[in-house]
Amino acid sequence: PLHHWSRELHRRYHGLRLRAAETAGHTRLRLRWAGPGADLLFLLTSHFPACLPAGPAAPAAAADWQPCAPVDAAVAGATLVSVEKVPDDRVLVFSLAAGGMVHSLRAEIRPIAPALYLCGPDDEVLFALGALRQRLLRPPAKHLPENRTGRIDPLPESLAPFLAGHPRAEWRSRLVRSVRRLSPTLFEEALTRAGEEAPAETFAARAAEVCDLAYREADRFYLYSPVPWPEGDFPLDPARQVRLSSFPLQSATGWECRESRDFGPLLALWLDYTLRHQAFHQTKGELLRRLGERARRAAGKIHSLELQLAATEDAGRLKQRGEIILAGLSR
Question: pLDDT at residue 37 above 80?
Fold first, then answer.
């Protein structure tokens, strides 16, 4: 979906002029536009890295937003000329032009070490944002893209020999890690189309087919869930039980399906549910932690009282014997 989302972002923001940038800590950047475009948020948290317009699906209000002087100095007033996804990587590149120069804002939307870099015309890093290793304080002199060599193309002639060298039980983990463009959702779709016991050559052909379908131009988009879309509760894991696609998924036969001509509304629906799902479970986790602490304290007090009670069980008998002894001594 990030491939199609980059096109949607280009459609929405192309030609807009950047008015100002703001940050909130080391994990949030907000771009504000001198025009009708909604603020654009970059969330660089490892549990949910994202780039999305502010609105119902995004937490826009925060008391700790501060002007981002390095970004303002470099590109305030610049015009967004393109948004592109880096092939075979979860990186979005926003190109901003002003004064005959083009700067690039590179957002690494990865679950591990998400980050954002503002680079000058010669790829020198002017600003960096991201919690890991305090990137904000020590950006590298030059932006160096991650080395992803060794990954194979999603072609039958490349996939079949690769599959033949590994047990079937390892196909999913190895393919998703080693094959360009092949996501877990596309793997499941290829497996459904090929069949559980299909030979390597058949599965390779189906995997190449679904990778090609996923990156074609699309005029329809689909949001699948195994149960009706939840409105007030959170029965679905948004990372594993919701599937966004640019073509009909045979692997989701029997699932609830929402269809749209535009990718944005379906993504906004998924993002809204994901953010509310995470907020709910964070609150739930905090409440459970507090209840657990109180339960442990209460259990400690009960144990102490039980010990005290056990120590006083013979008090009456001992008192009676003591009185007998004293009476005998007084004679």
Answer: no
